[in-house]
TrEMBL record:
Protein name: Uncharacterized protein
Organism of origin: Synergistes jonesii
Binding site for Zn(2+) 2: 91, 126, 367
Keywords annotated in UniProt: Hydrolase, Metal-binding, Zinc
Entries under InterPro entries matching the protein: Amidase_Cbmase (IPR010158), Bact_exopeptidase_dim_dom (IPR036264), Peptidase_M20 (IPR002933)
Length: 397
């Protein structure tokens, strides 16, 4: 099965959807369940129908478009249609537009694929308002019961609708997601394609440093139990330790001092230390290190609590190999790499063999109106996706 993608049509879809929810000077505003989101989904559904796909929207709002093959066994491609506040046009929709174009080009080639082919356009992949990879977790049946019930009630999504959104997982032979890299790895190395072998796990530690609130003018420096001084010391030592670590990144993005007055020595400082790695054992060891360091903050004390720990996800070895070999055959420069960001592929990889393709992000920028991937890079990614899907159709059961 060989098929040629229609470059003009693909780019016209990509840029066309990029106008829905776009605000000049700010970028994309297309949060899950917003009006712009609904409009984008309807727009894509229209494109799918025009291509002869059978469409359906499930209980949480994921959109699917399906082309029946000779078998019920299904190869799915896709990504998400929601964006962060002030986002770009590529993060998510690229993978949906690509999937649609791949199916259209296969149809037009006259080939009759063995597998049924499906586009999955997932909802709520971004962190807000539903905690990230919401639609794909619903599809994978991985949401705990009662998950974010109040918020979902607000969107008119019942518990039954969430449960009913679990896909017919046994029917799926593979899931492929084409996505922008969202980092500088590929561009810095002059590479055209990234082949993620795993997606980092994310662990968040809530650290509370306790001291004693007191007057910031009259309390002698040597007698203070200054929670900020202790927290700052901890954070400084932590980053020094991190400089010696490999294959793991960390961030302190939230910090709060209490009671929070300019003239009061903080009695308590809370911050969140986030750790990411594809190697869960590194994160675990870092957690032990944090606990150790938290005991050295005298005269203050500290409490370390785990807020959440999503384990790393390894992608399907066979599909990773298939993608890398296909890229090599196509003459694209490609390298295996970890994904530092979470994707719809993360939950889906738990239930369906999953592979991903990354294309370069200019300057490593994403979640910004300045997010950019060149047309050449976009087209290479979609070409490769098509090549891989044809290969998978031949080789997978
Ligand atoms: Zn994304």
């Amino acid at each position: 099965m060989t098929a040629t993608i229609n470059k003009e049509r693909l780019l016209s879809d990509l840029f066309g959807q990029g106008k829905i929810g776009w605000h000049a000077g700010r970028g994309m505003q297309r949060a899950a369940y917003s009006e712009a989101y609904a409009e984008a989904r309807e727009w894509f559904e229209g494109k799918m129908r025009a291509a002869g796909l059978k469409t359906r929207v499930d209980g949480v709002g994921n959109l699917f478009g399906r082309l029946e093959g000779r078998s019920r066994r299904t190869i799915m491609m896709g990504s998400h249609l929601d964006s962060v506040d002030n986002g770009g046009i590529y993060d998510g929709p690229l993978g949906v537009a690509a999937a649609l174009e791949v199916i259209r080009s296969i149809e037009e080639s006259g080939a009759a694929p063995e597998h049924s082919l499906e586009v999955g356009a997932f909802i709520g992949e971004e962190g807000e308002p539903l905690g990230g990879t919401f639609g794909s977790r619903a599809f994978a049946g991985l949401l705990p019961s009662g998950y974010r019930r109040e918020t979902l009630d607000g969107f008119g999504v019942s518990e039954e609708a969430v449960t009913a959104s679990k896909g017919n997982l046994a029917n799926y032979a593979a899931f492929f997601e084409l996505h922008i890299e969202q980092g500088p790895f590929l561009e810095r190395r002059g590479l055209q394609i990234g082949v993620p072998f795993g997606i980092v796990g994310v662990t968040r530690l809530n650290i509370t440093v306790k001291g004693e609130a007191n007057h910031a003018g009259t309390t002698p420096m040597a007698e203070r139990k200054d929670a900020m001084r202790a927290a700052a010391g901890f954070i400084h030592s932590w980053f020094e330790w991190m400089d010696g670590q490999k294959n793991m990144v960390c961030n302190v993005g939230v910090l709060e001092a209490l009671p929070g007055h300019v003239s009061v020595v903080p009695g308590e400082v809370r911050f969140v230390l986030e750790l990411r790695s594809v190697d869960d054992s590194l994160v675990k060891a870092a957690g032990v290190k944090a606990l150790e360091m938290s005991k050295m903050l005298s005269p203050c004390s500290a409490l370390v609590e785990t807020l959440g720990a999503k384990p790393a996800v390894m992608l399907d070895e066979r599909l990773v190999k298939m993608i890398k070999e296909s890229a090599d055959k196509a003459g694209f420069s490609a390298a295996l790499m970890p994904s530092g960001a979470s994707h719809d592929a993360s939950p889906i990889a738990h239930v369906i063999p999953t592979g991903m393709i990354f294309v370069p992000s200019h300057n490593g920028v994403s979640h910004s109106k300045d997010e950019f991937t060149s047309e050449e890079d976009v087209l290479r990614g979609v070409e490769l996706l098509k090549y891989v899907v044809c290969e998978a159709d031949r080789r997978l059961g």
